[in-house]
């Protein structure tokens, strides 16, 4: 079992879904392709962590719907109590920013503008996802609560990233002093 497998199990605790639907649901939180998801679903079904049924469709090919089994929930609960690994950061943007000392100012501004556009797209994306979560599910204990707080996290991360890009742009324009843009928050 890999982390993606557990994420798929978690999504299936909410509702029965097709592989395609699972791919769409996991995308905001974990990058996964069809070629990764379908073999995992098959493997988990063979291990009796999932059950499946075929749904006939008149205008499209039949689709296979998956549901988590009691054995799958047991496996998921076992994973939930294990320690969480440290997050992995792999962002080409960060490596390019390390090299700005040798770049022309125009290159730096282009890179920043590209990232600002990306952050603006992400903000719109997460705001759209948030608008689709029913209001009665925005409470602790609902099945959608995890999705809601993760959508909020994505939205806040994108907003903070955009603020950072704007701060760097102000530095380049001489409109901001080189100092910490945000006060350091102490641990609680």
From TrEMBL:
Keywords: DNA-binding. Residues 8-76 form the Transcription regulator PadR N-terminal domain. InterPro entries: Tscrpt_reg_PadR_C (IPR018309), Tscrpt_reg_PadR_N (IPR005149), WH-like_DNA-bd_sf (IPR036388), WH_DNA-bd_sf (IPR036390). It comes from the Bacteria. Residues 89-173 form the Transcription regulator PadR C-terminal domain. The keyword RNA-binding does not apply. The keyword DNA-binding applies. This is DNA-binding PadR family transcriptional regulator. One of its GO terms (molecular function) is DNA binding. Transmembrane segments: none annotated. Pfam families: PadR (PF03551), Vir_act_alpha_C (PF10400). PANTHER family: TRANSCRIPTION REGULATOR, PADR-LIKE FAMILY, TRANSCRIPTIONAL REGULATOR YQJI.
